[in-house]
């Protein structure tokens, strides 16, 4: 499922993580709170399990991108509480990857590596440390 509007994501930034600003020329709307990847050309795009992509971070504010290019603010290496159906204590310690701009999946994807490690949970949510991408 893909985002159709901005979402509020509880992140530890600015206490944990950092912000980068990167130009994107891939036409799309990147919503606030969306999980983002870098594509093969180095541009931030909506997260997906796509070959030659790597996890970038969380979109800090909505960006409507056209082919002329737009600056995209990305929160990197933070800790965030993200919606996840079926969140359970057994998820703590497991790696997750961003399979869409609003979806986490267990383990590394077939095309992308892990985005972060689950360090806590509550009903319907996982606390993901995006600075930890290996066991």
Structural summary, described in words:
It is a single chain. This protein is mainly β and 135 residues long. The protein has 2 domains: 67 residues, no CATH class; 51 residues, no CATH class. It is 0% helix and 46% strand. It has no helices and 13 strands. It has a 6-stranded antiparallel β-sheet with strand order 1-9-13-12-10-11, with no helix packed on it. The model has no long low-confidence stretch (mean pLDDT 93).
Total strand segments:
13
Mean pLDDT: 93
Indicate how many domains the architecture comprises. 2
Number of H- or I-type helical stretches: 0
Overall geometric form: globular
Instruction: Give the biggest sheet.
Output: 6 strands, antiparallel
Order of helices and strands: EEEEEEEEEEEEE
Please list the strands of the largest sheet in the order they lie side by side.
1-9-13-12-10-11
Low-confidence parts? none
Computed over alpha carbons, the radius of gyration is 14 Å
The helix content is under 10%
Query: Structural class of the helix and strand makeup?
Result: mainly beta
Percent of residues in β-strands: over 45%
Cα-to-Cα separation, first versus last residue: 28 Å
Task: Give the secondary structure arrangement, pairings included.
Elements: E1 10-11, E2 18-24, E3 28-30, E4 35-38, E5 44-46, E6 54-59, E7 63-65, E8 70-76, E9 79-83, E10 95-100, E11 103-106, E12 116-122, E13 125-129
Antiparallel strand pairs: 1-9, 2-8, 3-7, 4-5, 4-6, 6-8, 9-13, 10-11, 10-12, 12-13
């Amino acid at each position: 499922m893909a985002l159709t509007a901005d979402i509020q994501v509880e992140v530890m930034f600015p206490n944990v993580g950092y912000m980068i600003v990167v130009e994107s020329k891939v036409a799309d709307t990147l919503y606030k709170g969306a999980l983002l990847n870098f594509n093969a050309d180095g541009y931030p795009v909506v997260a997906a399990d796509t070959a030659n992509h790597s996890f970038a971070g969380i979109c800090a504010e909505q960006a409507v991108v056209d082919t002329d290019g737009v600056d995209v603010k990305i929160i990197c290496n933070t800790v965030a509480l993200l919606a996840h159906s079926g969140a359970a204590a057994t998820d703590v310690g497991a790696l997750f990857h961003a399979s869409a701009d609003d979806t986490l999946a267990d383990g590394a994807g077939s095309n992308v590596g892990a985005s972060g490690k689950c360090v806590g949970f509550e009903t319907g949510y996982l606390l993901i440390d995006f600075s930890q991408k290996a066991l």
